[in-house]
Design goal:
alpha+beta, Jelly Rolls, 4 domains, Immunoglobulin-like, 7 helices, 39% strand
Length: 569
């Protein structure tokens, strides 16, 4: 039995590693190769250039600048491998570079030099996308289509990009298209479908963009670039499980020329280039006649093709004196129709008349440029008349504001004076006192009438604003207006005003009003908030405004009775 000491084992291992190190240091690169994964290739579709050198060298040793003349050079991945068989060390370094051909034709990948050793040149045949032989080569390609290739500044056009792939995608990303001096926005979500091209099935991912050029001139629209990985059968030998491998791929869409025209010198107003623009109105209820204080809603809708919703102008309306208008926030909509971007703006206006009569609403004009006929046009809502009838529910008693009005309603009196002289002087004195009293009374009535008129106008304004807010379902506005209106009703009934809405609801015995106000507050401040509808509250308000507040409506009538004050003897 041979016993080897630990010292001898250690010495042998040291000698062994020294031999390995010497052999490794003496190893130098002597062989280099370059290959491509397919030939011929197709324009705008990537192929892989693989370079292998039999040494462990710097990963930055490969310079691919010589390829840029005829090709687009993509990402490069580097891997190093070291193996030892029978104490013989083998090292290799591999570069895998994605290359995309710019144009069809016959090209040469020139020799590339690493560590003083050069690869062999490779002849490459590049097929055009419409070449019949390309169908058998393409696992992945992009098609791009624009709605028009000649537009005006700020005119919208659409770009439709379709990614076709016959292989199974592992991962990937699609960049945005690019155009100098333009705004580009994706519309909607990606669409997926299947199609068969020349007997081969492709999966298709479709994406749509809107493009708005901001400057005139000649431009090139660059389509998106797809980069990712696809699954391919494993190339390893003796692979009993036949696992698939991933392969990096990249593909570029076509470059599309685009002509952008400037704004015509003859155009006046806000620039709106569109192939179709229309404006129309709708009335709720249908426009015939309506009464003072009753709100009516006028909806104005502007629809434009080839414009984004941000480009649509502000919709405004002016009304003559005697009418009040309460505009809503505009509603915006955007969608696609027959390959064109269609945008729409809708704005509602609540109109309330403060006095009866006929009113002329002015026309509404929106100037725009027709990109189909290349002409200036104006979209118009014609002027129209509306008739406002008196509202008996809002009529108030006439207020005396002048001596003439007082004389008109005061019956004439004849004073007969006897011939007795002292009686004449007595009646003269009485007449002077009566005249003085009438003068003081008239002056006081003027002040009272002015205060009463102001209160009546304030009450009418609060009531009109409140029913307009109910019509438009604006609950927060109702909450802010309700205390003022309830105080007006209490003043008309000779009651004291209250400081808060809760006090007013407690003071007035209106169960339906209290229940509806509680429902309103729950909609906005409850645990499960929801949209509030003001139709029911509108009915209650109109009824109460017509009937007023009587003594039977009070929960505690005694608290409003005057307090008798007694003095100690």
């Amino acid at each position: 039995m041979v016993i080897i000491s630990m010292k001898k084992i250690t010495a042998l291992l040291v000698i062994l590693f020294c031999h390995i190190a010497i052999a490794g240091n003496a190893f130098a690169a002597s062989k280099i190769s370059a290959t491509i994964d397919k030939n011929p290739v197709v324009v705008n579709e990537s192929f892989i250039l693989k370079i292998i050198i039999d040494d462990d060298v710097n990963t930055n040793a490969l310079n691919t600048s010589a390829l840029l003349k005829d090709f687009i050079v993509g990402r490069t991945s580097v891997s190093s491998q070291t193996s030892m068989v029978n104490f013989k060390t083998t090292r290799t370094t591999t570069w895998s570079t994605l290359i995309i051909a710019k144009t069809a034709g016959d090209f040469v990948i020139p020799p590339l030099t690493i560590e003083g050793i050069s690869t062999q040149a490779i002849n490459v045949k590049v097929l055009a996308e419409n070449d019949p032989r390309a169908d058998k080569q393409q696992d992945l390609f992009i098609t791009s289509n624009i709605s028009v290739n000649e537009v005006y500044v700020q005119q919208q056009l659409t770009l439709t990009v379709k990614l076709h792939f016959a292989a199974e995608l592992k991962r990937g990303s699609l960049t945005e298209p690019s155009l100098n001096e333009a705004t580009i926005t994706q519309i909607g979500k990606d669409k997926e479908s299947d199609t068969i091209i020349n007997g081969r099935r492709y999966r298709v991912i479709e994406r749509t963009y809107t493009i708005s050029p901001q400057k005139s001139g000649e431009f090139i629209l660059k389509s998106p670039v797809f980069s990712g990985e696809i699954l391919v059968p494993s190339t390893r030998r003796n692979n009993m499980f036949s696992f698939s491998e991933t392969k990096p791929v990249s593909v570029i869409g076509d470059e599309l020329p685009l002509t952008v025209r400037p704004i015509p010198d003859t155009f006046q107003g806000t620039w709106l280039p569109s192939n179709l623009l229309a404006i129309h109105q709708n009335w709720q209820p249908e426009l015939t006649t309506f009464k003072v204080g009753e709100p009516i809603t006028r909806s104005i809708t502007l629809t434009a093709a080839g414009l984004s919703e941000e480009q649509l102008p502000v919709l405004e309306m002016t009304v003559p004196k005697g009418l009040k208008v309460y505009p809503d926030q505009a509603q915006l909509h955007t969608g696609m129709s027959s390959g064109h971007l269609v945008s729409q703006k809708v704005r509602n206006f609540a109109i309330v008349a403060s006095k009866s009569g006929e009113y002329q609403l002015p026309e509404i004009n929106i100037p725009w440029w027709n990109t189909v006929t290349n002409r200036y046009q104006v979209a118009t809502i014609a002027a129209q008349k509306i008739t406002v009838l008196p509202n008996p529910d809002l009529e108030v008693a006439p207020v005396i504001t002048s001596n003439e009005q007082l004389k008109a309603i005061t019956p004439a009196r004849t004073i007969i004076v006897t011939k007795t002289s002292w009686l004449q002087w007595l009646f003269l004195a009485l007449w002077l006192l009566t005249t003085l009293a009438w003068f003081i009374s008239t002056k006081w009535q003027r002040k009272s009438a002015k205060k009463s008129s102001n209160k009546q106008h304030h009450a009418a304004d609060a009531y009109l604003a409140l029913i307009a807010a109910c019509k438009k379902n604006k609950g927060l506005t109702v909450l802010s207006l309700m205390p003022s209106w309830l105080n007006d009703l209490q003043m008309q009934a000779g009651l004291l005003q209250t400081a808060t809405l809760d006090e007013a609801l407690t003071n007035i015995d209106e169960k339906e009003l209290a229940q509806e106000m509680n429902n309103l507050q729950q909609c906005y401040y409850g645990k499960s908030q929801k949209e509030w509808q003001g139709s029911q509250l509108l009915i209650i308000i109109q009824r109460m405004n017509k009937q007023g507040i009587s003594a039977t409506n009070l929960k505690s009538n005694k608290q409003h009775q005057p307090v008798l004050i007694t003095l100690n003897p």
